[in-house]
Amino acid sequence: MDVIGVVELTPDLPADVAERLVTAVYLASRNGTVGICLNGISLASLDRWLDPVVRADRCQAHGVEYFDGNDKEELFRRLTGARFFVAASDDLRVALEFRGSTVMTVDQGLEFLSNELPASASVH
Asked: In sequence order, what are the residues at sequence separation of 6 or more whose Cβ sits closer than 8 angstroms to the Cβ of residue 17?
């Protein structure tokens, strides 16, 4: 499955920031599937943030796809065509930049996902 972008979650993120990021990712997935790179975050933890958002949102969304942050080779192989990247760790940011990608910080990603992406028709 092609993703329109990837957002990384790490345990270093404050819980309120991670929750806002997960909410923004899901709402942005109305434009296409968004990947979530779980880097030290369990799927159960993600589901605790994501499930209430999914239940509350009655709009059609493509949803999210999970990536294992420890398997960079698989992650990079599946990112063909992704248009945005949000890195919470320096390791992923450096690896993506080395491959020529422009990478947003978490704050930039929140702004982009909350404001620019939902209004952008160019992401479809």
From this structure: 106, 110
